[in-house]
Design goal:
Layout (H helix, E strand, L loop, with lengths): L5 E8 L8 H14 L3 E5 L3 E3 L10 E9 L4 H14 L14 E7 L7 H8 L3 H6 L16 H11 L11 H7 L2 H5 L2 E2 L1
Antiparallel strand pairs: 1-4, 1-5, 2-4, 3-4, 3-6
Length: about 190
């Protein structure tokens, strides 16, 4: 079970960085998170996953970690954006190719900014998701329960974490996805 101060973070990359390949970049980003004061408790296997949305670029390398530390959700998000920038991330296109993507999936059991706002973002249609992005931190991540490239690696490190609003574990959320989607996420 995820302790209150533990955080779930998803990592992904489909372009090389100055460090090297996407997998090398993810390893270096985990080291940077540790150097920032986060204590990385568990690291999933690395997975090859199809680009999302389909056709938007090369396939990804994805992973998830569980960490703990003193930072608030907003402070951790700021650190994660700094690390992305360090590895060449440019925020030019929503869901575009990237050298590093760090997503804060959960910060303990926090629901941010509130249940109503969270629900609004979780219910956006795919078309709206392509063009709209929140200007505030939404937790838990409003799309995590739909994405095999998040849930499959998350099962490695936090299978029993229970979504505070959906009241289902990561394992249950993953098992609810179509088998074809889960099969596309392949360990490296």
């Amino acid at each position: 079970m995820l302790r209150e101060q533990e955080k779930l973070i998803a990592l992904g990359a489909n372009l090389s960085s100055a460090i090297g390949s996407p997998a090398e970049t993810l390893r270096a980003a985990i080291d940077e998170l540790s150097a920032s004061g986060e204590c990385v408790l568990r690291v999933s296997r690395f997975y090859a996953t199809p680009c999302f949305p389909a056709g938007a670029g090369p396939d990804y390398v994805n992973a998830c970690i569980v960490s703990t530390g003193e930072s608030s959700a907003a402070e951790l998000l700021s650190v994660m954006h700094q690390i992305e920038h360090k590895f060449g991330r440019e925020r030019e296109q929503r869901w575009g190719s990237r050298s590093l993507d760090l997503d804060l999936l959960a910060h303990g059991g926090e629901i941010l900014p509130d249940v109503t706002s969270y629900s609004k973002w979780r219910m956006l249609s795919l078309e709206e998701q392509k063009v709209r992005a929140p200007d505030e931190l939404i937790l838990p991540h409003p799309r995590m329960h739909e994405r095999a490239f998040v849930l499959v690696p998350l099962c490695d490190v936090a299978a029993d974490w229970r979504h505070p609003l959906l009241d289902r574990t990561v394992r249950q959320l993953c098992e609810a996805l179509p088998q074809e989607a889960r099969d596309e996420v392949k360990p490296l």
